[in-house]
Amino acid sequence: MGAHLLRKNLLYLSTVDLQSMFTEGKQLTDQLTQDIADLQATAQTEAGEITELQGQSASQQSTIASLQTQVSADETTISADQAQIASLEAQLATATAAPAVDPNTIAALETAIALAKKNTAAVAALILPVPTSIVVTPNNNNTFTPGQVVQFSGTVLDQHGDPLATQPAITWTCTTPANITPAGLYTAPSPLAEGTDIVTASSAPAQPTGVYVTLVAALAPPVSSTPTVASVTVSPQSQSVVQGTTQQFTAAVGLSDGTTETNFTPAWSVDNGSIDTSGVYTPGSVGSYTVTCNVAGVIGTSSGSVSAAVTS
Questions:
Q1: Can the peptide bond before residue 138 be classed as cis, meaning omega within 30 degrees of 0?
Q2: Which of these, 223, 307, 232, lies nearest to 273 by C-alpha position?
Q3: What does the pLDDT read at residue 73?
Q4: pLDDT of 52 above 50
Q5: Which of 31-40, 198-207, 235-244 has the lowest mean pLDDT?
Q6: CATH number of this structure's domain 229-307, picked from the four choices 1.20.1440.170, 3.30.70.2470, 2.60.40.10, 3.40.50.10490
Q7: With a threshold of 0.85, does the pTM exceed it?
Q8: What residues does each domain of the chain span?
Q9: Burial class (CB in 10 A: 0-12, 13-18, 19+), 229
Q10: Of 3.40.50.80, 2.60.40.1930, 3.40.50.2020, 3.40.720.10, which CATH number belongs to 133-215?
């Protein structure tokens, strides 16, 4: 029953109603076409300005921010135009479903919709991504030791935080310029004092990014506070000893700091005869001998000869 009434009401749709719908649709289409044309001109101008700014220094960040705001406004306008396109498509659906279909109205709406979609897509393509920031790897708080080499890399992001499809060149600088190459290869100086180095990535007009690098100086070899035994000198040297007598040997100990040591315990030994802990030598057979004194692993020697006792 409801479907019958709807069909009956649609039959009463007059030519005047269809003409009114066509006129309204045509006005909306004309306005939309003009809006899109204006947006195209504005977007082309903005694209040219952004391209020019890309070759300038980061000091123009405020200008870029203004352009980004305008781009955002253009995107909002395009969204509104897309809503109007949806409205036109709804009108087209209504006109197509009418019992008395006006071919001119249908054709006009279809043409307007196709043109609006084409122009909106063209405007959207002209809204260029703006290099805004740089993400550096590795990031802050890296600790390097003398001579350590590390490769830095950077990714340029647009105003939405997305990586640019085509990455621009990055300029690498450092607090100490000689520490980094144009390709971002960093070498910690050697030798170095403890401190901080700053590696900076720049790609105009994106805001430069600095990374702090902590430098740790190499530890010097530990210095012993206690001098060690450097030499042992045995006296007398080349001494001739007669059988049946004794000879007193002594040792002088020199230390690593250039001083001498008097409080030490020597270890005495001899290859011919005997020697006590005090360094008193009793010769053995006639011939040669060598007295050895060991102090903390450092050796001193004295060699001489043993002669026979003279009998009366």
A1: yes
A2: 307
A3: 65
A4: no
A5: 31-40
A6: 2.60.40.10
A7: no
A8: 2-126, 133-215, 229-307
A9: middle
A10: 2.60.40.1930
Which tokens go with 71? 């781009």
CA angle 123, 106, 81 (to 5 degrees): 25
Q: What is the pLDDT of residues 239-261, one digit of tens each?
A: 999 999 999 999 999 998 899 99
Residue 116 · residue 88 · CB < 8 Å: yes
pLDDT for residue 36: 63
Rounded mean pLDDT, 130-138: 86
Strand 287-295 relative to strand 298-307: parallel, antiparallel, unpaired?
A: antiparallel
Residue recorded with tokens 């043409």: 111
Q: Are 275 and 283 in contact, with CB atoms under 8 Å apart?
A: no
